[in-house]
Every structure is written in C-alpha cells, then in structure tokens.
Write a structure and sequence with these properties.
With 138 residues, the chain is of the alpha+beta class. It contains four helices and seven strands; from the N terminus they run ααβαβαβββββ. The N terminus is likely disordered.
Length: 138
C-alpha cells in the first residue's frame, strides 16, 4: 500500500529530525524502519530507540555525547523474527545472536534487541520530538 504524501512516514524521521550530526547514520537507521514499514505498513510502538541514544533523546545525557552504537528495542516478536530472516536485504554485514541482531553499517553499529517479556527492569518511555519512540532503563 502506497503512503499518501500527507501521511507521516516513519522511514525518514532520523534524517528529517537530524538525530545524528552524521546524516549517513540517520539514513542507515532509517533503512531499518523502511524495511519494517515496507513489510508491516507501520513501525509504531513496535520499535524503540534504547540505551544511551534514548537517554540523550530524553535529556538525561548531554546532547554532545558520542554513542559507540545505536540500540533499538524490537518490542513485537513478529517484527524481530522478520528481521532475523530478512536482515540481508539491508546489504550490510550482520551477526545474529540469541537475543540481538548486530548490523555493521559503515559509520556505526546498530544492535536490534529482542524484547524480553519477562524483564523486571523499569523502563522510561517517551517520544523524541513527539515522533520517535525511545525507552531506557532507569
């Protein structure tokens, strides 16, 4: 299904909001959203930025902080299984572990974490600039 021009497209939000100074990183992260959006129509609450980047988005870490990687929490098990079987469509090196997929983009690594429904940690949830879901453990 083709999106109308006036609909919000999740697959270019990192570029649009210039989340990272290096636009190549914005494009790389957006490509993950694009892959999911192409298959499911929307990412919605099923994918959240987590870890140190989420803390920067929330204002808990200085915005000049330079992350060593980008962590994404895949909250929907169908999305995670889809990524496991279709990650090669991103045309980059990757590794699949028990509960995460590591993507080796040229400028940064992205770790896709499978949501653990038995997790006992308390997470803070939010939306960066009202558009990008994030969460982090306090």
């Amino acid at each position: 299904m083709k999106k109308l021009n006036n609909e919000l497209q999740e697959n270019n939000l990192f570029q649009k909001l210039q989340v990272f100074e290096n636009n190549r990183i914005n494009k790389d992260v957006d490509s993950i959203y694009q892959l999911l959006e192409d298959n499911f129509g929307s990412v919605s609450e099923n994918l959240s930025v987590c870890g140190s980047v989420a803390k920067v988005m929330h204002g808990s870490l200085d915005e000049n902080y330079r992350p060593k990687d980008v962590d994404l929490l895949v909250r929907n098990p169908f999305y995670y299984r889809f990524l496991q079987t279709n990650v090669q469509k991103l045309n980059i090196d990757f590794r699949i572990d028990d509960n995460r997929i590591i993507l080796f983009f040229p400028n940064i690594a992205v770790e896709l974490w499978q949501h653990n429904i038995n997790e006992k940690s308390i997470r803070t949830y939010g939306k960066y600039k009202g558009l990008i879901n994030y969460c982090f453990i306090k």
